[in-house]
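Input (Site-specific DNA-methyltransferase (adenine-specific)):
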Amino acid sequence: MSIKNRAFLKWAGGKFKLVDALNRHLPQGKRLIEPFVGAGSVFLNTNYDSYLLCDINRDLIELYNIVKHRPEEYIKAAKAMFVDKMNDKEAYYDVRKKFNASRDPFKRSVYFLYLNRHGFNGLCRYNRKGEFNVPFGSYKKPYFPEKEILAFAEKAQKAEFLCISYEQAFEMASGGDVIYCDPPYAPLSTTASFTTYVGAGFSLDDQALLARYSRHIALEKGIPVLISNHDIPLTRELYHGARFEAIKVQRNISQKGSGRVKVDELMALYDETYHTEALS
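Output:
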C-alpha cells in the first residue's frame, strides 16, 4: 500500500483516515470535482488527470492558489512565524488581529497557516462580521508542515482552485468528471451543534438540495457523485436512490469524554445504475 499524503492544514472533519475507503468507492474518471475541498486529503490521495477544487472559504482558496504558484516564497514567509516567541498567547491574538485587518491575500495566507497551527484544535471559524475568532491553542511546539506544503504545491499543478458555491461547482461538471461531496455533516440530533466555518451554516434545506443536485446530475448528465456523511436515518432518507455503504470509523462527536460516541460514515453513490424513480 502506498504512503498516504497528509494535508498541510489541520482540519475538522478532514478525510485523511478515510482516503483508502474513499478510493474504493470513487468512480474512475478524468477529472475529480470537490465542491467542499477542505484540507484536500482526498485530492492529495487520488490519481485523476486533473482536479476542480472548490470552497466558499476565500481564505482557503487564496492560500491554495498562492501555494500552487509561489511555494518557495510562501514557505519562507510562513516559516518565519513558527518560532518560539510566536508560540505565545499575546503573539497569537496580535496575529489574529492583523489577519482580520489585512486585505492582502499573501499576508492573510501566511497568517492563516499560523492561526491554523497555533489555534485551538485547528478550527477555522469566523464570526458574523467575517472575523476569524478561534482562541489560542496552547501547543508545546506547533509543527511547520514544509514537506506537506511542497507536496501540495507539486500536486496542485493538476488542479484549479475556485472560491464558488457547490451549486456553481456542479454547473461546471461535464462528461468524464466525477464529483465527491464532503459537506458539513448532518446533525446527529435536533439539539446537536451544527454550524459550518463560513457564513450562517449548512442547513437541512442545504443538505436536501445537495442530494437533489446529485441525483439530477447523475441522471441527466451521467456524472457520478459520491457523498459522505454521518450514517443516520436522516441521511439515508436524504440520499434515496443512491447506493449505500457504511464505513466504521472512530469519530469523537462530543468534546466531553463521557459523551463521545462512534458514528459510522455513510458513502452514498449516485452513478450509472441510478434510476428515474429515485426522483419521485
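DSSP finds ten helices and seven strands in the chain.
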